[in-house]
């Protein structure tokens, strides 16, 4: 699968207890509180020792700041309070459970997912541009940095920073390609302008501030934002003269990342139009996803957990692992594989979507991850509310807000059926089962003994086995998940769309009324639009997915629903890679063979040569089938309704997911577009191109041979652009794509500068603005 050898093992979740993982013992709650008070207790003891006292209290505290970066197209205010049914992600649910008590030093901040309204930064509408290209992602990360300054401002002066001040600073921190390298300087300047006026207050403020403790969470692109946030935060640290390491502090106050909780990091989600190409990292995610090394930032990040989806495989959702390119993980981090696709881990699916979780949100597979993420964060000292029954009397008296809100507690509900099926799924991992029942207070994940990419490949075989029966053989049509899936008819769609359009119009009218008012910025916060109407076509998605899978499984040519599928228009933004043909064919054959083997374990033939199958008699295997039937979603089937009326062009169900490991990948890929420029052809500013591929499936031999496997077509002229001499050398498939991209990015920047300079010289010559030195002067 990957060129990386001897990679460290990935982790898998422990058995899930019947009672879940919310704390059930007041002693555990006290331990969590003690971790939050550790600096205060240490300071008290040291102060009393100097004074010769015993037991005296002291007026000091640490700040606890929790930041929640939500995933693409996820928006807590809408998903929780307006959507029907509500479907907040696990990031939003954990935000609801987080303690907020600024006067006691507890702060929480929520950052909506890209592609959704974020009025505080001036983004008012759901946006397909943000959905496709992570538009305004940089602003969201900078907003997180600004909230750290905001919390310090309130703590030291009792005043929050004004919305106008925050928005003004946000603008000064913004960058555009290719000048993203200037972002470090602008961020440092903006943060310094907010922090330096507070410096004098640090020594005099009461209670005394001892430390800044951060708890950072993120899902999908929000996880990528969280990782970039960590990188950019580290760039704010100064290195004292003669010191080996940066001082991990702001305003002289020690700053630590107590917990970093990541759910299925995706740093690049591109348009389906770009398939069979895999998108690379966007500008703000380029070079920022690697977790800090312990040798440079010792004991800065205390705990990191990255929960990843075992069954996601969309081309446009490549995973960014936290494993380093050398195959090792940071000592403070664990990567844990969970069943399901992207949002089965991060949450956000409504109950009943695609006929899954028909019994309510308690049957959503993401509830397992929610509990495990809560438990890991709680064990690391995260300030999270708890059920009233386990809240110790002492804490109830001094901090009654630690009692979990009843509505939030309902968001943590799970069905016993879900637990049984999840625990049965663990039988597919090849572990030696524990002989003792699971401990709800000790949900330690377990080493699998295999690296991440191998674990994901093994899990895809199980899901492919299920698909062979349900999709290729057509038995889905007789299953409840299809029969009870929602399918809106034309009349329902027309009425629902009209209602949604009216809601959007009302929001925009409110926005117009707010313009020019004295408190315009505050008024605009309440004028975010709902998302555009999207008809529910679950049965259609399942049927079309079945047809696609059957065609691929049987080796039949599959027609796209749009003729445009044969020539792919590549939006020249950021980075695009081409998958290697030979590797794709090998993947297809391997996944098919392994899937057939697993199908024989999950299903048994009803009679000799009957070609009719039923679910295995094994209770565990039957429970695994039930999990795939009623819990695991089909993210590729949903990924259908784009402008080309087609699912992922050239994508299919017989591909392993692309995984990035720092500068390495698990697939050999070719850099087609780097930093928004086509690699290997002469640079033309403003050029627009299409990529025509020589595919192994459906198109082989139709376009003639090409040494790099594709053609670049000038959209304006329609002509094929010739590759530069030697281009084939830099366009060879490679696992070490990071090094190639870095080299090409620098070359493109230099070429652009030279081209701009030449264009300017030519212009000055034509207009007489440039007098060239004459080589020979005749006297």
Automatic annotation (TrEMBL):
Per UniProt, which keywords does this protein have?
Membrane, Transmembrane, Transmembrane helix
Ranges of Basic and acidic residues composition bias in the record: 494-508
> Where do the T6SS Phospholipase effector Tle1-like catalytic domain residues begin and end?
255-372
Top-rank taxon, per record:
Bacteria
Q: Which residues form the T6SS Phospholipase effector Tle1-like C-terminal domain?
A: 418-755
The species this protein was found in: Pseudomonas syringae pv. delphinii
Location of the region described as Disordered in the Swiss-Prot/TrEMBL record: 487-518
Protein name per the record? DUF2235 domain-containing protein
What Pfam family is a match for this entry?
A: T6SS_Tle1-like_cat
Q: Which PANTHER family match?
A: PTHR33840, TLE1 PHOSPHOLIPASE DOMAIN-CONTAINING PROTEIN
* TM segment ranges: 669-689
């Amino acid at each position: 699968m990957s060129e990386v050898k001897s990679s460290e093992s990935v982790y898998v979740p422990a058995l899930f207890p019947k009672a879940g993982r919310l704390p059930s013992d007041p002693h555990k709650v006290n331990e969590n509180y003690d971790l939050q008070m550790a600096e205060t207790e240490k300071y008290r003891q040291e102060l009393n020792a100097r004074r010769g006292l015993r037991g005296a209290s002291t007026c000091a505290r640490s700040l606890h700041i929790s930041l929640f970066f939500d995933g693409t197209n996820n928006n807590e205010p809408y998903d929780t309070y307006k959507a029907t049914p509500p479907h907040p992600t696990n990031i939003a649910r954990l935000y609801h459970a987080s303690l907020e008590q600024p006067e006691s030093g507890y702060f929480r901040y929520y950052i909506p997912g890209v592609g959704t309204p974020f009025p505080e930064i001036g983004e008012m509408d759901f946006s397909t541009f943000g959905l496709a290209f992570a538009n305004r992602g940089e602003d969201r990360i900078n907003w997180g940095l600004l909230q750290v300054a905001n919390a310090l401002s309130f703590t030291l002066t009792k005043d929050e920073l004004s919305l106008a001040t925050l928005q003004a600073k946000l603008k000064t921190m913004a960058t555009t390609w290719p000048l993203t390298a200037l972002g470090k300087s602008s961020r440092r300047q903006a943060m310094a302008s907010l922090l330096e006026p507070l410096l004098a207050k640090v020594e005099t403020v009461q209670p005394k501030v001892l430390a800044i403790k951060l708890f950072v969470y993120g899902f999908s692109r929000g996880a990528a934002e969280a990782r970039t946030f960590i990188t950019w935060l580290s760039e704010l640290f100064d290195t004292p003269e003669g010191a080996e390491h940066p001082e991990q502090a702001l305003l002289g106050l020690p700053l630590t990342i107590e917990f970093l909780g990541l759910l299925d990091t995706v740093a690049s989600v591109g348009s389906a139009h770009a398939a069979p190409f895999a998108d690379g990292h966007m500008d703000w995610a380029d070079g920022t996803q690697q977790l800090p090394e312990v040798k440079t930032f010792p004991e800065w990040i205390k705990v990191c957990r990255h929960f990843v989806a075992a069954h996601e495989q969309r081309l446009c959702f490549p995973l960014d692992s936290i494993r380093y390119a050398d195959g090792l993980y940071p000592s403070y981090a664990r990567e844990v594989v969970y069943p399901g696709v992207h949002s089965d881990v991060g949450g956000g699916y409504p109950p009943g979507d695609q006929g899954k979780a028909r019994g309510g949100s308690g049957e959503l597979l993401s509830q397992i991850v929610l509990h495990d993420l809560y438990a890991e964060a709680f064990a690391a000292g995260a300030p999270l509310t708890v059920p009233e029954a386990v809240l110790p009397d002492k804490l109830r008296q001094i901090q009654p807000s630690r009692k979990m809100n009843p509505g939030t507690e309902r968001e943590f509900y799970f069905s016993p059926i879900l637990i049984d099926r999840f625990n049965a799924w663990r039988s597919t991992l090849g572990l030696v089962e524990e002989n003792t029942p699971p401990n709800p207070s000790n949900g330690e994940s377990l080493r699998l003994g295999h690296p991440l990419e191998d674990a994901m490949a093994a899990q895809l075989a199980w899901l492919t086995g299920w698909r062979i029966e349900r999709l290729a053989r057509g038995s889905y049509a007789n299953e409840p998940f299809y029969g009870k899936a929602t399918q809106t008819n034309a009349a329902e769609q027309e009425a629902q769309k009209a209602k949604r359009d009216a809601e959007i119009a009302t929001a925009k009218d409110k926005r117009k009324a707010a313009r020019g008012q004295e408190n315009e910025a505050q008024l605009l916060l309440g004028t975010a639009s709902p998302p555009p109407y999207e008809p529910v076509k679950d049965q259609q998605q399942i049927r079309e997915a079945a047809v696609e899978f059957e065609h691929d499984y049987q080796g039949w040519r599959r027609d796209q629903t749009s003729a445009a599928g044969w020539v792919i228009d590549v939006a020249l933004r950021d980075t695009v890679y081409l998958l290697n043909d030979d590797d794709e064919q090998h993947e297809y054959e391997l996944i098919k063979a392994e899937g057939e083997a697993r199908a024989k374990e999950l299903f048994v033939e009803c009679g000799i040569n009957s070609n009719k199958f039923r679910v295995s008699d094994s209770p565990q295997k039957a429970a695994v089938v039930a999990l795939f039937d009623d819990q695991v979603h089909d993210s590729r089937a949903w990924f259908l309704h784009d402008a080309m009326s087609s699912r992922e062009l050239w994508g299919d169900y017989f591909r392993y997911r692309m995984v990035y490991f720092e500068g390495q990948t698990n697939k050999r890929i070719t850099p087609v577009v780097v930093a928004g420029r086509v690699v290997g052809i002469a640079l033309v500013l403003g050029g627009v191109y299409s990529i025509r591929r020589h595919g192994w499936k459906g198109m082989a031999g139709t376009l003639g041979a090409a040494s790099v496997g594709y053609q670049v077509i000038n959209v304006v002229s329609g002509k094929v652009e010739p590759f530069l001499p030697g281009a084939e050398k830099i366009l060879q498939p490679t696992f070490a794509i990071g090094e190639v991209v870095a080299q090409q990015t620098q070359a493109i920047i230099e070429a652009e500068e030279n081209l701009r300079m030449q264009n300017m010289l030519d212009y000055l010559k034509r207009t007489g603005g440039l007098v060239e030195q004459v080589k020979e002067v005749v006297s």
